[in-house]
Every structure is written in C-alpha cells, then in structure tokens.
Amino acid sequence: MSKKVLIPIGDASEVLDTYYPLFRFEEEGYRSVVAGPQARLYHLVLHEIPPDSSIPWDITQERPGYHLRAEIAFKEVRPEDYAALFLSGGRAPEYLRDDEDLLRITRHFFDAGKPVASVCHGIEILTAAGVIQGRRVTTVAKCARDAAQGGARYVNEPVVVDGNLVSARTWHDTAPFLREFMKLMRR
User: Fold this and answer.
1) Cα atoms found within 13 Å of the Cα of residue 168, Cβ hemisphere only
2) Phi then psi for 14, rounded to 5 degrees?
3) What percent of the chain lies above the pLDDT cut of 90?
4) Is 54 exposed, middle or buried (0-12, 13-18, 19+ CB in 10 A)?
C-alpha cells in the first residue's frame, strides 16, 4: 500500500487542522501530499471564538495564519496512489466542495474503503461527495446541518469512528482524533 496521505487545502484552510496532521503523518513514516485547486501557495487561517469575554463573538473569528504550498492540483491527483485522505476544516471547504475533481477523489477513498479523516468544516466536502449517508459523524456544531443534509447522524462527541471514516469537531480534539486515525491507517 502507498505510504502517502493526501491533504486537500484551499485558501482559508485552518492552520492547526492542517499542519498538525501533516507533521504527525510524516512522524509516522507517511509522505504528506498537499493538493489544491491549483498547485500554488495558499493562505491558511486561524479559527477560534476569542476567549476574551469583553469582546463577545458568537461565531468563529478568522485571522490570517501561515501559508502552505499545494504541490499538486486536484485534477492531477490519482487517488489510487494514496493510502489515506485527510480533510481539514476552516472556511475553505465551503468552496472546495464545488470542485468536481476533489469530489471524484473523495468518492474513490470511500469506494476503496481507505481511511478518511474529516475535521470541522471538512464535513461539507463529504456531504457534497455523497459519501456519508447512514454514517455516524461529528463536526463543529454549526455544521451539524451539513452532516444531516448528507444523510449522516451527527453526534456531539470529540471523535467518531464509523468504518473507514474518522471525524472530529475542531482542532481542540486533535490528539484523540489523530490517535484514532493513526490506528485506522495502521490496519
């Protein structure tokens, strides 16, 4: 089996959702391959509800984060060359879910039963690909409707494993999320 993990990103992918797994996979001996709508540099963001109660926010505040280069465009990805798929959150999935090449890639991983991880807004890509019907998933609470629209059953838990899919709410759940995903990848 391939020792490569595909990490699709776009502008406004969440920094921690993306970089932590990228490095974790490499620690485990996998090659993290970052893909995007085009092979170019992307602007990542920090998403967090500010902890300062004197500045109330009822939605996630977005701030500029690090940058990350996609080495390959979605249209050039041969999904059969990859062992697993990791879908980051942030705002990027709102527009990435309309990319037919990414949806084709995503469906391949489910059809082949390969490990797939989704955190936060990554669920929007899974819903658009039509691959979570009948599954039990978690995501950030404001995306619970996206999960339901995809035919999944949303639960508010840090991490959910359902077959080849591991889902998490946000980057706050990264340690248990990646622990479960790595178990799945080692099978």
Assistant:
1) 22
2) -75, 135
3) 88
4) exposed
Please state, rounded to an integer, the average pLDDT across all residues of the chain.
95
Confidence of residue 63 (pLDDT cuts 50, 70, 90): confident
What's the CA gap between 137 and 121, in Å, rounded? 12
4-186 belongs to CATH 3.40.50.880: yes
Residue 134 reports pLDDT greater than 60: yes
pLDDT of residue 52: 75
Q: Output the pLDDT for position 73.
A: 98
Question: Cβ neighbours of residue 116 under 8 Å, at least 6 residues apart?
Answer: 84, 85, 86, 87, 106, 109, 110, 126, 164, 165, 166
Output the CA–CA distances (angstroms, integers) from residue 43 to 59, 89, 91, 102, 120, in the order listed: 21, 13, 11, 19, 18
For the chain, domain boundaries: 4-186
Residues catalogued as catalytic = 121
Residue 105 φ then ψ, to 5°? -60, -50
> Which residues lie across from 116 on neighbouring strands?
85, 165
pLDDT for residue 175: 96
Task: Give me 57's structure tokens.
Answer: 């926010």
